[in-house]
Amino acid sequence: MQFQTLFQPALERPVQVALLGAGEFGLSLIAQARRMRGLDIVAAFDLDPARVSAALTEMGAPHRRCASLAEAEAARAAGALALCERLDDLLRLPLGMVVEATGHAEAGAAHAEAAIAAGIGVAMVSKEAECVVGPELARRPPPPACPTRWWMATSRRC
Q: In a 10 Å sphere around its CB, with 0-12 CB exposed, 13-18 middle and 19+ buried, how is residue 158 labelled?
């Protein structure tokens, strides 16, 4: 009962999520999200898009490599995961949150800052980045257009 109450908004309106860093954890998150309701991983960014593309092909996940925002939008319109070559393009997509999973403290901090600046919520699963900058990022106020810091609950871009 409590589970249903807590997650009903996401079941009614799935959270549109981008993954930053598609290593072992990131790929397993994509595989799991394909089997559950409420979490829709719509885009990803990784330093080795060829490796990620091969892994997505192997798991049967529809995806397209995207060199521009227009290509990423077209991938989304076609129902494919947008595998973005540029972080800036990914952060311009309509997202409820990003999952930062690079495992690299500096990159994770930069990605989180960029997402917050774009009005997108951040879930940091990289312990390296979370330990170094997580508390500082959590103390920052949300962008002016955002009424709450917990963007995932409404799955709205601010």
A: middle
CA distance 63 to 83: 7
pLDDT tens, per residue, the chain with 158 residues: 455 666 666 667 788 999 999 999 999 999 999 998 888 999 999 999 999 999 999 999 999 999 999 999 999 999 999 999 999 999 999 998 899 999 888 888 899 889 988 988 888 887 777 777 777 777 766 655 443 433 333 333 44
DSSP 102-114: ---HHHHHHHHHH
CA distance 114 to 75: 22
pTM: 0.81
